[in-house]
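Sanity check

After download, print the first record. It should look like this:
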Amino acid sequence: MLAKTDADAVRAHNRRAVLDHLRRSGTASRKAISAATGLSVSAASAIANSLIRAGLLTEIEEDDRLEARRGRPGKGLKLSGEAATVAAAKLGVGEVAVRVSDYAGTVRGEMRREANIAGWGQGEIVAAIVDLLRDLGFHGPGQPVPRKIVVAVQGKTDSGLTRLLWSPALKTRDIELASPLAALTGAEVDVFNDCSMMPEAFRWNADFEALDFATLFMGFGVGMGLRLGGATFQGKRSSAVEFGHINHIPGGALCRCGNRGCVEAYAGDYAIWRRVNGRPEDVPTRRISDEEMRCLAAAARAGEQAACLAFEEAGTAIGYGLGRIFTLIDPLPIVFTGSGAEAMDLLEPAIRVGIKESSIDGFGADTPFSLAEDVDALIFDAATAHALAGLDETFARSGGGENWEAA
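Expected structure tokens:
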């Protein structure tokens, strides 16, 4: 006989498996859930019925020709959007943005506010997020409130998911964001480095099969997210994956972080811009626009020497950084994103040469590359996926407020 705690853990695991399958498939019959999860049909059905009573699932008519011919239309299942809402907030250079989604992952609203946030502190950041939630209709008297909010920020965050330790977009350091935002909204709040969280966007992507992979952002900065063993990597003290601040050339070009020779100091958008314009010590506080980056890439494609060298140096820095990563954890597929990644035709040859020259026996130089074009959507999708996964875990353990059957 299982102890009560063991039986509770088994039931939570089974409920989690059902919810996870529906997130991947969108809709499924009880029989399909049974086949996908390894649960018996009766167990899958019992769990599904409990989830329906808790308001987490809804039934739909299946388009099943065989069942229709037999006169017994099947009942499919899908996640109920009405069960809860979550919010993804994005804090970066020049803007604050918020997206609200329901429990099924459907976007209910999105809004952004342009602002010079460099001098902001805790109060201004929290107020801006709350204002956007209110404008979207998800904060205030009589309005629904998100169960969970994930704040994605440029910069280093703590492993407790509560504080922004440092950001190139802000002058203030060590800002507590989770507790004041939670106090104002009543939501559970997590604070994440935006690049470290990007792999979460692929959590339920049926077309993305890699268990281990990295996302690599090239734009205002250079950042990486790692998915290892099916989990997004997070350091013991901080967001940790500061790929852009791996040293590439000791004593080299000035980086926005204040150090010299970082990968970012050669591969960030400002690094490419200043290399083309012959201004090696400039670290502009403004964001180099996507249009400016496209113009620089067009100049390189037209054969302008300074532009060609700038993109080659950027690719070399990325390649050497990846070679070092591959020496530590073995090669893995890379998903590139950001304004710089739009010039992969210019960057990829140098990246692969850099990997070959910096790894043991060129190991990893042929690793698969892919491109995620919309970085804003990627961040929002990642933050939303993390929030929904957190709700799934909560509901699987608690039963969504219902007395669950022992299934």
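If your output differs, re-run the checksum step. Summary of this record's structure: The first strand starts at residue 27 and ends at 29.
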